[in-house]
Design a protein that fits this description.
Helix 3 packs parallel to helix 4 and helix 8 crosses helix 9. The longest helix is centred in the middle third of the chain and has 17 residues. This protein is of the alpha/beta class.
């Protein structure tokens, strides 16, 4: 790969990665993953996400994640608006809806999701959406608010749903789940969707690939992305370089990054 591969979704600011973050970033760069999109998950993490992004040269996004809906307050939406105005993130995210965790209040999730979609529209920003067991509901509100596209993170829906996300200006994130032979629907989509609809991601420290599987749940990290990309290349009959270049171009397009993206988008004080 001639250019640094972009991990389109990872949480470098997560507590699980804090203990050896500099070494983790060094491992990532050593295997050719030199750029990362890092979505915040709550108002309490905005400053940490920004500081980490500046330190290592990542692209931050700011949003209120549905899994943390119990922590979110109405005033956090005002705070988010200030961060979107003052900090120039690449997207509003991670936002969305989660239909998997039964204890979450879906109406409250929707309320926060709608306001954040309106903010994305007001600030003319793409969004990074969490869509676990909520694809049709997320699509409903994306059709309502008509934001500037973005990334459907960890896609695991039907071909019909995939096509609708693409029609609305989204690309679909594929990562560790695609590496499991039993993930037949995900692997079929990865093989058959237009390459223009796909971006690579790790979701580190979560969704570890098959080679890290086994109890206890393994910690994922961006250095696994080239092997994940190799799985996609094999599924599609492409070279690793072709897959990496296409994914990078797709991330740059939907997040409106420069097409010739430097390896370190901000001034870094580590590994530069």
């Amino acid at each position: 790969m001639t250019a640094a591969l972009i991990d389109s979704h990872c949480h470098l600011d997560a507590p699980e990665l804090a203990g050896d973050l500099e070494q983790l970033v060094a491992r990532s760069r050593a295997v050719g993953v030199g750029r990362w999109v890092v979505p915040a998950v709550s108002a309490a993490t905005f400053a940490g996400t920004r500081d980490m992004a500046r330190r290592f040269g990542a692209w931050p996004a700011y949003g209120l994640h549905p899994l943390y809906e119990a922590e979110h307050r109405a005033e956090h939406l005002d705070e988010l608006a200030r961060w979107l105005r003052d900090e120039s993130p690449v997207a509003v995210g991670e936002i969305g809806l989660d239909g998997f965790v039964a204890t979450l209040d879906m109406q409250r999730q929707i309320d926060f999701f709608e306001v954040q979609l309106k903010l994305a529209r007001d600030f003319d920003l793409p969004v990074i959406v969490h869509i676990r067991r909520s694809q049709d509901l997320v699509l409903k509100y994306l059709r309502k608010w008509r934001v500037q596209g973005g990334i459907a993170h960890a896609f695991n829906g039907s071909r019909q749903q995939a096509d609708e996300f693409v029609r609305l200006g989204f690309v679909l994130g594929f990562g560790g789940a695609m590496t499991y032979s039993g993930s037949q629907r995900i692997r079929r989509l990865a093989a058959e969707l237009p390459m223009e609809a796909i971006v690579l991601e790790t979701d580190a420290p979560d969704i570890a690939p098959a080679w890290l599987a086994g109890p206890p749940p393994a910690r994922n990290e961006p250095a696994e992305l080239p092997r994940i990309a190799a799985v996609l290349a094999e599924l599609r009959g492409m070279t690793l370089a072709e897959v990496a270049a296409a994914s990078n171009a797709n991330v740059a397009r939907v997040l409106r990054l420069p097409q010739d993206v430097p390896d370190c988008p901000h001034t870094c004080d580590a590994g530069s």
